[in-house]
């Protein structure tokens, strides 16, 4: 019962930021990158609750999905102020569509990141995803949105700890994450 991910598409005309390719984003100067990132973060943090605002966030998240598959971009985005904002959106987004798309961005970032800074709050992300899965355990559609992101984060943490050859202080994985993961696997 694996849910196939639909291809990600975004509408560049309604994006509210320049729809640069990942290669173009990689070549931005520090100031341009900072401005771009600030704009993305402010669009995601917008508290407007209208249908148009939700569609705009979904469009922006779809764009982030397309650039997160590039290693350089994944490294830069996961280590930036965007990652905590994605966690905040997971916690408090107005619709489940947005939460599912945020989880997909997080999963893609974790999958394509090759170098993770120690200050990235991945343990918080694991805890949050675990809680969301536990709260929505009977909703298999939501579970299938959150599980891949949780798995990718756990794998990224394990890979980084293996590289460092010692456990990182802030990356303790809660027992609940393993319990939820095993329970999900056991139940199909």
TrEMBL record:
Name this protein carries in UniProt: ULK4 kinase
Alphabetical keyword list: Kinase, Transferase
SUPFAM superfamilies: ARM repeat
Superkingdom of the source species: Eukaryota
Gene it is expressed from: Ulk4_1
Single GO term (MF): kinase activity
InterPro entries hit by this protein: ARM-like, ARM-type_fold, ULK4
Gene3D superfamilies: Leucine-rich Repeat Variant
Presence of keyword Transport: no
Keyword ATP-binding listed: no
